[in-house]
Design brief:
CATH architecture of the largest domain: Up-down Bundle
Order of helices and strands: HHHHHH
Number of helices: 6
Number of domains: 2
CATH class of the largest domain: Mainly Alpha
Largest sheet: none
GO molecular function: peroxiredoxin activity
Number of strands: 0
Shape: globular
Protein name: Carboxymuconolactone decarboxylase family protein
Structural class: mainly alpha
Length: 104
């Protein structure tokens, strides 16, 4: 995600103890989220769907909340992305993600 906001305590450790590696990760992040062919909002919705499909509740919540606060992504837009999760990854990750969305 932009602005060097990463999910996970491990990134804090890497930033403090391996600053060269952290810089590489930040540079890669900036290269991925360019907004060139796909706008940043669409890329964020893809990130929401990927974390939801993986069943990572913490990352899913972070992706959803940052997308809503930073990009104005609506719950309806997130729900549309989650319907793809239902189709491709099944009911369990879909239901978990919908629960998270409803709690936000």
């Amino acid at each position: 995600m932009k602005n060097e906001v990463f999910v996970g305590e491990g990134m804090k450790y890497i930033k403090e103890n391996y600053p060269e590696l952290y810089k590489i990760i930040v540079d890669l992040n900036n290269e991925v989220y360019t907004g060139e062919a796909l706008d940043y909002k669409t890329q964020k919705l893809i990130a929401v769907a990927i974390t939801a499909a993986a069943g990572d509740e913490r990352a899913t919540k972070k992706q959803m909340s940052s997308g809503m606060s930073e990009l104005g992504i609506t719950k309806d837009e997130i729900f549309d992305a989650l319907k793809v999760v239902l189709l491709t990854s099944g009911m369990p990750p879909f239901v978990k993600a919908v629960k998270i969305l409803n709690e936000l």
